[in-house]
DNA sequence: ATGTCGGTCGCCTATGGAAT
DNA sequence: ATTCCATAGGCGACCGACAT
């Protein structure tokens, strides 16, 4: 491994699990196999400060990086559906705003995260990592499908399954008490894979990209 | 006996694809 | 054409373990 690649491997990365207003955000900072920081906060700017503090380069976020496009939706989600990876269809902004159930609150929260990171870590708009600090969209179930096998991964057993998966990757999960923290670590793992070039981009420039590790 | 905490379960919101 | 199943988070109900 060359010097640059070796340095990249120990870079600090982060994963963020986005919840509604009650649950807030969960952040995990990962450096190699070491969990450097586990934090939760209702304020996206606080997570941004934490990431600056740990010199985080790449941040994987479990929330849509952009709204659906009227009439055509998002190519990334259709591509995944074709591969039998179920995901939630992101509505258009108009549709999300019109909803009165509060169901989309977590998606609006996700938008606040991207906004808080925009100045230092803009959303990755290319199909691959270019070396600059970025945020990117990913989601735990797709990561689990890639690392466990699509036919094995099940959201119903996500607590036990995802914890076991992380332990098999050599991570210590004792500090990760809730499913939200586990999901955040999975996003951080996706960030490591993106840096290493072991990542696939679903979607296109119009509907935005979703990055998932390539199957092992 | 009463209260708290974590974990599980089922159902709600929405949507698209597969199966029937 | 209709039903079923999958994903996401939220929420209330319930249960067992433990503390007061």
Q: Give the CATH architecture.
A: 2-Layer Sandwich
Rg from Cα = 16 Å
Q: What fold name stands as the CATH topology?
A: Nucleotidyltransferase, domain 5
What is the CATH C-level name? Alpha Beta
Bulk shape: globular
Strand residue percentage? 15-25%
Tell me the number of helical segments per DSSP (H or I, 4 or more residues long): 8
Relative helix content? 25-40%
The number of distinct structural domains comes to 1
* The CATH superfamily title: Ribonuclease H-like superfamily/Ribonuclease H
Strand order, main sheet: write it out. Answer: 3-2-1-4-5
Largest sheet: 5 strands, mixed
Structural class: alpha/beta
- Model regions low in confidence, pLDDT < 50 over at least 5 residues: none
Q: Gap between N and C termini, in Å?
A: 19 Å
What is the number of beta strands? 7
Mean pLDDT: 86
Helices and strands, in order, run as: HEEEHEHHHEHHHEE
Describe the structure.
Pfam families: DUF429. This protein has a 5-stranded mixed β-sheet with strand order 3-2-1-4-5. A two-stranded antiparallel ribbon has the order 6-7. By secondary structure, the protein is an alpha/beta fold. It has helices at residues 3-9, 44-53, 75-82, 93-98, 105-117, 140-148, 158-168, 179-196; strands at residues 12-18, 25-31, 34-41, 58-62, 134-137, 199-204, 208-213. The chain is built from 8 helices and 7 strands. The longest helix is centred in the last third of the chain and has 18 residues, at 179-196. The chain has one domain (3-118, 130-210): Nucleotidyltransferase, domain 5 (2-Layer Sandwich). Helix 2 (44-53) packs parallel to helix 5 and helix 7 (158-168) crosses helix 8. The structure holds a DNA duplex (20 and 20 nucleotides).
């Amino acid at each position: 491994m060359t010097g640059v690649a070796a340095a990249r491997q120990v870079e600090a990365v982060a994963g963020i699990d986005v919840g509604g207003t009650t649950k807030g955000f969960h952040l995990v900072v990962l450096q190699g196999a070491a969990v450097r920081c586990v934090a939760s906060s209702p304020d996206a700017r606080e997570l941004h400060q934490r990431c600056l503090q740990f010199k985080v380069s790449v941040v994987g976020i479990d929330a849509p990086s952009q709204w659906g496009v009227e009439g055509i939706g998002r190519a990334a989600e259709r591509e995944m559906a074709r591969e039998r990876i179920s995901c939630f269809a992101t509505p258009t902004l108009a549709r999300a705003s019109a909803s009165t159930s509060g169901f989309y609150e977590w998606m609006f929260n996700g938008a606040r995260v991207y906004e808080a990171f925009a100045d230092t870590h803009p959303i990755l708009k290319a199909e691959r990592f270019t070396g600059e600090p970025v945020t990117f969209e990913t989601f735990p179930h797709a990561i689990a499908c890639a690392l466990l096998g699509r036919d094995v991964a099940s959201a119903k057993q996500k607590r036990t399954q995802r914890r076991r998966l992380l332990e098999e990757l050599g991570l210590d999960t004792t500090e990760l008490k809730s499913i939200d923290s586990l999901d955040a670590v999975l996003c951080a793992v996706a960030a490591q894979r993106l840096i290493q070039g072991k990542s696939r981009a679903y979607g296109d420039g119009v509907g935005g990209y979703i990055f998932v590790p390539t199957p092992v």
